[in-house]
Amino acid sequence: MRTLMTAITLCGLALTCAAEDGPAVQGQTEVFFSSISDPQANLLYRELRNKAAQLGMTLALVDGSAKADGLAALCTDPAQKGQPLLVYTTDPQSAQDAARQCGEGGRPLIFVGREPGGELFARYSHTWFVGPDRREAGAMQAQLLSRYISTAPNWDRNGNGTLDYVLLTGEIADPETQIRTKSFKASLRKAQVKALEVGSYGCDWGRDQAEMTVLRLMKSTQGEQVEAIVCNSDTMAAGAADALSALGYNAPGGRYVAVVGIDGIAAAQKRIKQGVMYGTVRHDAGSYAEVALRLARQLAAGEKPSLEELGYTPGRDRDIRIPYLLSTAP
Predict the structure, then answer these.
(1) CB of 281 closer than 8 Å to CB of 265
(2) Same domain, 13 and 104
(3) Residues 273, 156 share a domain
(4) Alpha helices, DSSP H only, in the chain?
(5) Tens of pLDDT along 207-229?
(6) pTM of this prediction?
(7) How confident is the model at residue 304 (pLDDT cuts 50, 70, 90)?
(8) 199 lies in which domain range?
(9) Which of 21, 231, 239, 265 supports an S-S bond with 168, CB 3.0-4.6 Å?
(10) pLDDT tens digits, residue range 172-189?
(11) Based on the domain organization, do 34 and 98 belong to the same domain?
């Protein structure tokens, strides 16, 4: 069986961690990722690593892609009773199972960066969340489009008085897709942004799906109408931007289609600097990491989480909301 050290080496990270099939070393804070190769997860882990070093803490990573039952084993490990477990998972059912199992195992559970759905926090009093209000992501994409209209002299390429955009969405059944899309559209209407949706395409969070979708779209007659592409994630936005570049769009002095995403992953930041992507709604992963680790330290010591230690006041459902950030081209 592979060890966690193998998984970490593959990601280019140098950190001593417990073996995948063994317990964490005493004093380490355990962190579970459903897949460390996920771009957002990898960004968060790097920030956790940096903040842990600053706080004098050590981490034990468990990569869920290397062991299917890894999260369940952590939740119910009797040797870790009372010790907080940090979790990043994109699977709502996995989050629900972890909440129940950590309750049975007597472990505080801190979800970081990705909020589980349902009424999990109302049901399980040992659960915490550190991250953004995900409704803000779509709302801030609407801000990006509004900013683009107000600053770009040639935004209305087809001269109809509105910014005609297409929407690239994640998996239709994923709550993240639904919340990001709904909040984006509602915010456009509320702010009376001069924008019109001319198409919506499901790309299942995939970069390649987004790239192929945009290539087909922009080669069609409808492509002449498209002035912006709004994506539920940066992974899809990167694919859309690459498709546009391949067709000659977004080059200096050429025809421009504004591409906006969500997450703030490195691939998006690179394309924003290159000018082939307009902007993104960025996770403040550094703040997520620091607050989550400070919270874990307080819970492990049996202390009540405090504003003085965390810099934030937990909400009624033990949620600590940290705002998104905007990134746009200089």
Answers:
(1) no
(2) yes
(3) yes
(4) 4-10, 39-55, 70-75, 92-105, 120-123, 135-151, 175-191, 207-219, 234-246, 266-274, 285-300, 307-310
(5) 999 999 999 999 999 999 999 99
(6) 0.84
(7) very high
(8) 135-282
(9) 231
(10) 988 899 999 999 999 999
(11) yes
